[in-house]
Design brief:
This is Damage-control phosphatase ARMT1-like metal-binding domain-containing protein. It catalyses: beta-D-fructose 1-phosphate + H2O = D-fructose + phosphate; beta-D-fructose 6-phosphate = dihydroxyacetone + D-glyceraldehyde 3-phosphate. The chain has 402 residues and is of the alpha/beta class. It folds into 2 domains: 129 residues, Transcription Elongation Factor S-II, Chain A; 270 residues, Rossmann fold (3-Layer(aba) Sandwich), CATH 3.40.50. Helices cover 43% and strands 9% of the residues. The protein has 16 helices and 7 strands. Helix 1 packs parallel to helix 4, helix 2 packs antiparallel against helix 4 and helix 11 packs across helix 12. It is globular and about 55 Å long. The chain starts with 29 loop residues before the first helix and ends with a strand. 44% of the residues are buried.
């Protein structure tokens, strides 16, 4: 679907025009703050965290200048994914960063950041995750210790209470977003929770506990403090609910600071196994499930695409179509799932995801402007409160279309 164009999703008649895509060209708006405050701060943090040489530091300075005062430049040099990004361009190269759709510009920034640090280039920095110092600090932090200890209390709960607790831990674990913390004043993982605005959580288990063996796709968001409860939920699916297979989709390369890549999955399973007790048992079961193929780690180039899921390629569509249930984690996946547009918040969730090829549930804490599926009374109360409820990370959604 072209940016801002009318049109329906595959297989649907176009009845009304979709609302406009969100851009970062309004000073003081949340997207403007990401592009003009968060991204420059991140470039500086990346440069401070790793002892890059003069050539990489010059590249980081050039990227800072480009996003501050320049236009969107193409990837330079012998780039392995040049044609892929050309197919994703949609005519934005050569335009001002603020004039491109926010989702597109934000995603392309992270690809250019990887180029600046030489992540894909021959040489010493090839394959070195520029965000690994931040991820590692979180994975070894006290907050994770508390999360691991909490797993010990699950065994005394009835199965349905275990399930509900694990879903909510996975949901609120989405507050553990390192990129979000760079610009959200006062926002911290584990901060005050002020509201679950929509809760379709009880619909998950009838979908999973059907008559046949279930296959679940879980599309992960962040590593560390969020991936651990995701893995605990996967263990529940495999060990307690007897799900046949779980496909865990992570990013093929570093993205949005804390987004999980395969190395983060391995590090998290090791962290669980080393913790001992109930957490250690979860870790060992997950290791065995990975070895047997019941837990399969997946990557796909489209996971780092600057486009909504209604433009997903055929092989990924088939993957989701074959799943009993797909669980989409996090704010970015939500934006890509419903479309990063100025939807009225009362727009039905099922209406925005009608194109999706199978049953889907979104677990998301709100850290950007996009939101759908809320009741009019809920929206009125939130707006009357006067605080930035859409972007503070203190509200959450569990929304399903089964």
């Amino acid at each position: 679907m072209a940016d801002g164009d009318a049109g329906g999703r595959p297989g649907e008649a176009a009845v009304t025009s979709d609302p406009p895509v969100i851009r970062s060209n309004v000073p003081g708006s949340f997207p403007w703050g990401v592009m003009h405050e968060r991204h420059p701060a991140l470039i500086r943090r990346v440069g401070e965290a790793t002892p890059y040489g003069p050539d990489r530091r010059r590249a980081l300075d050039l990227l800072l200048a480009e996003i501050t005062d320049g236009v969107i430049r193409p990837l330079e040099g012998p780039v392995h994914d040049r044609e892929l990004w050309r197919s994703w361009d949609r005519g934005h190269l050569g335009r001002r960063w603020d004039d491109a759709p926010f989702l597109w510009a934000e995603s392309y920034f992270y690809r250019k950041l990887l180029a600046a640090v030489g992540y894909f280039d021959p040489g010493p920095w090839r394959g070195i995750d520029p965000f690994e110092p931040f991820k590692q600090a979180e994975l070894l932090g006290k907050g994770v210790d508390e999360e691991l200890r909490a797993l010990g209390g699950l065994s005394s709960m009835p199965v349905e209470e275990q399930a509900r607790t694990l879903v909510h831990r996975a949901l609120w674990g989405n507050q553990a977003d390192l990129g979000f913390r760079l610009s959200a004043a006062g926002a911290q993982a584990g901060g005050q929770v002020t509201g679950l605005l929509a809760d379709d959580g009880d619909l998950i288990w009838p979908a999973v506990d059907g008559p046949g063996p279930a296959r679940v796709c879980l599309v992960a968001d962040n590593a560390g403090g969020e991936l651990l409860p995701d893995l605990a939920l996967i263990d529940h699916l495999l060990h307690t609910r007897a799900v046949r297979e779980v496909s865990l989709h992570v990013k093929p390369s570093p993205y949005y600071v804390s987004d999980a890549v395969p190395a983060d999955v391995v590090a998290s399973v090791r962290r669980l196994s080393a913790a001992g007790g109930a957490a250690g048992e979860v870790g060992e079961r997950l290791r065995a499930a990975m070895s047997s193929g019941r837990l399969a780690v997946r990557t796909h180039a489209f996971s780092c695409a600057p486009l909504p899921y209604d433009e997903m390629p055929g092989d990924l569509r088939e993957e989701f179509a074959s799943a009993t249930l797909t669980i989409m984690k996090g704010d970015l996946n939500y934006r890509r799932l419903v479309g990063d547009r100025a939807w009225a918040p009362t727009t039905p969730f099922a209406e925005t995801v009608g194109y999706f090829p199978g049953p889907v549930v979104a677990l998301r804490t709100l850290k950007s402007d996009v939101v759908v599926g809320l009741g009019a009374e809920t929206v009125a109360a939130l707006e009357a409160d006067g605080r930035p409820w859409r972007t503070s990370g203190t509200h959450a959604l569990i929304q399903a279309r089964l």
